[in-house]
Amino acid sequence: MTPRHPIRHLVRHLAGLSLGLALLGPAAQAETGQTAKPPSPARQAQNQRMAQCSQDFKATGRPGSERRAFMKECLRKPRS
């Protein structure tokens, strides 16, 4: 027996399959023990610089609208 509306039938099954994979994906990943790889040393250094610049900005007491320009300038400075 063929469905009256084969496209609707197909879409409904694909939607169900997508939902099932979305729900089971994280569980399958946790079960196999896969985790995100640790950041590279360069990424760690960049994260530290960003954190330091952010702390420096907070210490200035400037309004948040100036943060972007401050961060840009701070991150351009040569590494010490």
Brief overview, please?
The chain is mainly alpha-helical. Helices cover 71% and strands 0% of the residues.
Task: Give the % helix.
Answer: over 70%
Q: What is the structural class?
A: mainly alpha
- Please tally the β strands and state the result: 0
How many helical elements? 3
Radius of gyration: 24 Å
What percentage of the residues does DSSP assign to strands (E)?
under 5%
SSE sequence, one letter per element: HHH
Low-pLDDT ranges: none
- Overall tally of structural domains: 2
**First and last CA, distance:** 74 Å
Shape: elongated
**Averaging pLDDT over every residue, what do you get?**
80
Main sheet?
A: none
Topology summary:
Layout: H1 6-32, H2 41-60, H3 67-76
Helix pairs in contact: 2-3
Keywords:
0% strand
